[in-house]
Amino acid sequence: MIKRSKLIAVLIAGVLCVTALTGCGSKKEKLTVWSHLTEAEIVEFQKIANEWGKENKMEVKIVEDKGKVQEMIQACNTSNGPDIILGMPHDNLGTFQKAGIVSEVPSGMLDSTKYTSKSIMDAVVVKGKQYGIPLAQETSTIFYNKDKVKEVPKTMEEIVTMGKDVGFEFDINNFYVDYSFISANGGYVYKEANGTIDPTDIGLKNEGALAGYEFIRSLVQDHKLMAGDITGDIAKADFSAGKTGFYISGPWDIDAFKKAGVNFGVTTMPTLNGKTMNSFLGVQVSIVNAKSKNTEKAWELNKYLADKSSEIVYNNGNRIPVLKDALNNEVIKNDEHAKAFIEQAKNSVPMPNIPEVQAMWTPAGDNIKLMNAGQLDVKTCGENIVNQIKEGISQLK
User: All domains of the chain, ordered by start, with CATH?
Assistant: First the structure.
């Protein structure tokens, strides 16, 4: 009888454990976040995620992921995929949207008045709908060595003249950086109008684009400022060693130059032929996997992380925050390097975020490199870029 009573008690306890919401042995719900940010940023975001997890009785794990776009898409379609991707470059949004694995931002979650520019909001819009929350922004502009450059030039023509004496190098075959020269006179990648990007209208062989290629070519062929095959690493090393007075890059290089003891400043891009040089704008965004089993909670966490992202991306990632409140922080307001990038971002154009952007990078970089090597003239360079982009787009369909 005693044994039977004990057995019944055990069975009842077992039923209670199974049916209770927080029953015996039940596992806490879990959200998985894949991050494309730096390790230092991930550590800080994990702390924030733990706070949210404690309040919401959920486990949150943030892991570093460096997978390529197609690998990420494949993973998102499996049961082992992430619920959130944190810090993804915004130009991948269209590809993810086309694959059906990015969830639309819930209505009313994003308040455009809180962000630093319309461009930030445009970066997360695909086909009129929002698919990500902005975390940080970056663009490229001019670094200069204060020991070599006593007066900051206002024009690119002045930089070229001064560069012959103090040195001027950058990753000249990198289309991300080169876009400033191409855009100055009216070149563009894909035509944008009213929030819609048209991949059939490519502006990389019009007169403005050709003028940009010609200026780029002249830096190598005519002015002999740098080798036609110079890499970003070489240009960065030369500036870090004090060999050059001017260098073009983004905020990601600030920390390295500080550690190297370079006495440097950062300024906005000067004019070229009297016109504004519009650099590319990159926005790190955070998205929710449409295949997540808990998209509602994923979006809640996503918003929580984004709202608290400013100090993390600034202090640990050398990135520029996207929220107006963050830019009013006294530390950032007094940061001369950050201020230059904040100002340049106002004259920046978001990289295209449609799937066809995949067809842009290789043709542009390869043909500019051939032009700088003297193997292509400017017109042929532009024609090749456009024709090869069109061919690449046809293969995406």
Answer: 28-138+282-349 (3.40.190.10), 140-281+353-396 (3.40.190.10)
